[in-house]
Amino acid sequence: MSHSDAYDVVIVGGGHNGLVAAAYLARAGRSVLVLERLGHTGGAAVSTRPFPGVDARLSRYSYLVSLLPRRIVDDLGLRFAVRKRAVSSYTPDVRGGRPTGLLVDTAATGRTRAAFERLTGSEREYVSWERFYGMTRRVAERVFPTLTEPLPTREELRARIGDDAAWQALFERPLGEAIEAAFDDDLVRGVVLTDALIGTFARAHDPSLRQNRCFLYHVIGGGTGDWDVPVGGMGALTDALADAARAAGARIATGREVTSIATDGTSAEVRYEGEAGRAPRPPGTCSSGPPRASWPDCWARSRPRRPPKGRSSR
Ligand SMILES: Cc1cc2nc3c(=O)[nH]c(=O)nc-3n(C[C@H](O)[C@H](O)[C@H](O)COP(=O)(O)OP(=O)(O)OC[C@H]3O[C@@H](n4cnc5c(N)ncnc54)[C@H](O)[C@@H]3O)c2cc1C
């Protein structure tokens, strides 16, 4: 038995990106179907209640918010809040046989300065730190607003930043060069590099500049580079996004794994199955049945695209 429905847009995956897209497209009058493999939406941005009997929701995987533009919260009317955190990192070390470490406390610059001096023996690294992150903050102020604007060209972005030294350090040359030029202490270099290497499998001097891209995503958020704690965990955000998408008319179907997308360039056929080990009821006339191995193919079609108007944005 098979079944089809036609939508303007079929979105594969109900993580925060799929949900934001669904909410905006539905609000723009498109018919939207979100197909999510798991039994819940949110992707890596979900919450859990880890303490039995305590009504505390904590993030399960992704846990800090920086790259969510305020405009999306306002546009979609999301009931979602964040709190500032003071300590952004603490890195333990052993120097001269004695345990020590580097505290970066953005709420108490005096404590951070003292930690740098204790670790490195002078104020030089702290002064360099302030100068380096002063530079990234100025870049952040210029770059972050572009995330909700039509995608600028490389030259447009460079002109907007208006700081050739920063452009070279962050966009053109491997980030390791700027870090080595700014800092002498290996641990301080490592703390700065964390934001560049995490999850990239790149090296500090990688010619691909993957490390630069990763670093920029870590320092431009909100125009400040701050990373805030979501109240109710990340799931509070994705639940609010799912509510906004549904309220705008999007249909969200969980327990549906997309297995293929066939397109002729104007429309697409999206095939999906029920979740393994579960027997969810697929859309339309498909009835619940045996698990994945013998689950009948179900599918949805996206309608032919309208001719594009103007420039596309991210
Ligand atoms: C451990 C960890 C910690 C992180 N910490 C942070 C952080 O603190 N802050 C931050 O900003 N980012 C963090 N990230 C990165 C962030 O989680 C991702 O960038 C974000 O989740 C991407 O969102 P997404 O919607 O694109 O994809 P995802 O969140 O991955 O969601 C994709 C969804 O698609 C579904 N899916 C996949 N294949 C199919 C299919 N075939 N059919 C149907 N559905 C499918 C998945 O089940 C999933 O629900 C972290 C990531 C990890 C793994």
UniProtKB/TrEMBL annotation:
One of its GO terms (cellular component) is cytosol. InterPro entries: FAD/NAD-bd_sf. Gene3D superfamilies: FAD/NAD(P)-binding domain. Pfam families: NAD_binding_8. Residues 302-314 have a biased composition (Basic residues). Residues 264-314 are annotated as: Disordered. PANTHER family: PHYTOENE DEHYDROGENASE (PTHR10668), PYRIDINE NUCLEOTIDE-DISULFIDE OXIDOREDUCTASE DOMAIN-CONTAINING PROTEIN 2 (PTHR10668:SF103). This is FAD dependent oxidoreductase domain-containing protein.
